[in-house]
Amino acid sequence: MNSLDCQEALAHLQDYLKRELTPELVSEVKTHLARCRDCSGYACFEQSFLQLLERRADKESCPEEVRARIVAALRAAARDS
Fold it and tell me: Is 62 within the bounds of a domain?
């Protein structure tokens, strides 16, 4: 197992917080965060921010007319490609 530097650990941070990494990378990122105060602090901020977004997303919904316009635009783009 290689030791990640700050740049590598932060490059994997979002996937780590979303639990989208391989077990090996999870271990490497977790080890780095345990050893690096700067990255650990940033990871705590990012985790709090993601949790806030998730809570807000549960309360918000897209108006039906907006949803219909988006679906129509996607279908038109698919036809044109």
Answer: yes
Dist CA 59 CA 64 (whole Å): 15
76 belongs to a structural domain: yes
- What is the mean pLDDT, run by run of 10 residues, along the chain of 81 residues? 88 96 96 97 97 86 92 94 78
Q: State the Cα–Cα distance between residues 44 and 34, nearest whole angstrom.
A: 12
Domain carrying residue 47: 6-80
What's the total number of domains in the chain?
1
